[in-house]
Write a structure and sequence with these properties.
The protein has nine helices and no strands.
């Protein structure tokens, strides 16, 4: 190489056909490819967010506008980048998981955010129901099963101040491009994952 360093071949492939045959060299190739793939996660998330555009689902604005408006409100309120990214991605599961969209968003965010923010995203659909479940013959107080949980008020506040407010066609949201640097910063280094060595997880959480 021109710089005098050995660089892994990004096109190299493991040689085994069954995992029982894998060697350390094979897994080094796979780990390298996995790291490169992981770095592109924010770019893939932006592409997926764009799939929300144009689908209003009966609301006054489409799902992308709702996501941008929620995140913009949080950003302009001085929330930190991790919280803003959670606000941006909270409904990203709508396309593939219309019956459990919060679970999908929470699963995407879990390795990268605090337990409190992960819990908020995972449960926001139930908490959001406080504002409309009664109109569908459902229990608007479904969230009360979690009353007393350390993240109850954190989640209730997110829904009241940002999520349920973010359906205003006259509101001027920041463009998706404005959030991309935040996505890259928040989603670049996992804090917890079964694929992290203990020392790496400890460093990420420091």
């Amino acid at each position: 190489m021109a710089d005098g360093h050995q660089h892994p071949d990004e096109h190299a492939r493991a040689q085994f056909h069954a995992m029982t045959e894998g060697t350390p060299q094979d897994w080094a190739i796979i780990a390298n490819a996995s790291m490169a793939f992981g770095r592109e996660l924010p770019t893939r998330l932006v592409s997926h967010l764009k799939l929300l555009q144009g689908d209003c689902g009966g609301f006054a604005i489409d799902r992308l506008d709702h996501s941008l408006q929620t995140a913009t409100r949080a950003f302009q309120d001085g929330r930190d980048e991790e919280y803003v990214v959670c606000a941006l991605l909270h409904d990203i599961g709508d396309i593939l998981g219309p019956r459990n969209h919060a679970d999908i968003a929470a699963a995407i965010l879990q390795p990268f955010v605090s337990e409190e923010n992960h819990w908020m995203v995972a449960h926001h659909a139930i908490f959001q129901g406080y504002y409309f479940f009664q109109h569908l013959g459902l229990d608007r107080d479904m969230r009360d099963q979690f009353r007393g949980h350390p993240s109850f008020e954190h989640t209730a506040q997110f829904c009241h101040i940002y999520d349920q407010e973010a359906f205003d066609p006259a509101y001027t949201s920041m463009p998706l491009e404005a959030f991309e640097p935040m996505l890259h910063r928040v989603m670049s280094t996992p804090k917890r994952s079964i694929y992290l060595r203990k020392e790496a997880a400890a460093a990420a959480g420091a």
